[in-house]
């Protein structure tokens, strides 16, 4: 259970959370604030962010609301400057914002792919550009190594039908973060990639296909918070699902094709 007492200053983290207004992001926002951290809440919905911050006012955590369109690079840089003034650095940059659209290959639409990549991948890169100086500041201040973390997807492990845009964007996030991890290690910054399976959120409620081993937002939040506390490199859940997907992902291409064709719908 989340602690209701403010944690010691040495464990009270400065966190920037994107996509904080709904789904996993809202669950993470509420949990991190309940655990006593100082959290920057970013999303496009001002009202939802203010409601989360208002609910946390009587608790141990502190919320800073910064309404933000992550496709606006100038707005991201302005937000980073505000965080630097208010927090003086970041102990955790948690990239959670994302979207999902499925491609109909019979009516191939490049614009759809551009939209999904703009939110899921390019926006993450733009936020990282502005967040890294704040993480480096925290690294120089000593103590626990600061972290950069991003929510990818279990779909990054295995190509799936209609997921050309979503899956490829999440695979790009995973590869980018895992590569960046190697270059940031010497700077004292740890990198974690989060690969959820199916989580019951407003986004997945739009899916028109079965979602095996689906978990709740609370279960997802617990797995993420626990994994980040341990600085795990790959945070994936539910493990009975993600381990199976990982296994399928390393099969020979012919077998992966056969499995994928069985999931393809007319």
Return the average pLDDT rounded to an integer: 89
Secondary-structure-based class equals alpha/beta
Strand order of the largest sheet: 3-2-1-4-5-6-7
Question: What count of helical segments does DSSP give?
Answer: 8
Percent in strands: 5-15%
Terminal CA distance reads 45 Å
**Extended strand count:** 7
Q: How is the main sheet built?
A: 7 strands, parallel
Radius of gyration, in Å, reads 18 Å
Explain what this protein looks like in three dimensions.
The protein is of the alpha/beta class and 266 residues long. It contains eight helices and seven strands, in the order E-H-E-H-E-H-E-H-E-H-E-H-E-H-H. The chain has helices at residues 23-34, 46-55, 73-87, 110-140, 164-184, 217-229, 239-249, 253-263, and strands spanning 14-18, 38-43, 62-67, 92-95, 147-151, 190-196, 234-237. A seven-stranded parallel β-sheet has the order 3-2-1-4-5-6-7, sandwiched between helices. Helix 3 packs parallel to helix 4 and helix 4 (110-140) packs parallel to helix 5 (164-184).
């Amino acid at each position: 259970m989340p602690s209701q007492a403010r944690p010691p200053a040495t464990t009270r983290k400065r966190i920037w959370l994107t996509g904080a207004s709904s789904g996993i992001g809202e669950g993470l926002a509420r949990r991190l604030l309940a655990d006593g951290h100082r959290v920057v809440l970013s999303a496009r919905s001002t009202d939802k962010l203010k409601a989360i911050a208002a609910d946390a006012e009587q608790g141990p955590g502190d919320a800073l609301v910064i309404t933000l369109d992550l496709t606006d690079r100038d707005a991201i840089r302005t937000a980073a400057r505000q965080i630097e003034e208010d927090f003086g650095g970041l102990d955790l940059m948690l990239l959670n914002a994302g979207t999902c659209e499925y491609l109909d290959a019979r009516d191939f639409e490049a614009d759809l792919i551009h939209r999904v990549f703009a939110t899921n991948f390019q926006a993450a890169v733009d936020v990282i550009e502005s967040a890294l100086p704040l993480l480096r500041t925290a690294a120089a201040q000593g103590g626990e190594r600061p972290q950069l973390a991003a929510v990818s997807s279990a779909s990054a492990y295995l190509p799936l039908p209609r997921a050309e845009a979503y899956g490829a964007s999440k695979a790009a996030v995973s590869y980018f973060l895992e590569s960046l991890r190697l270059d940031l290690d010497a700077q004292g910054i740890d990198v974690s990639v989060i690969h959820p399976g199916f989580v019951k959120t407003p986004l997945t409620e739009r899916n028109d296909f079965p979602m095996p081993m689906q978990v709740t937002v609370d279960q997802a939040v617990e797995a993420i918070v626990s994994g980040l506390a341990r600085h795990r490199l790959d945070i994936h859940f539910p493990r009975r699902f993600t381990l199976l997907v990982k296994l399928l992902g390393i099969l020979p291409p012919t077998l992966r094709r056969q499995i994928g064709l069985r999931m393809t719908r007319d």
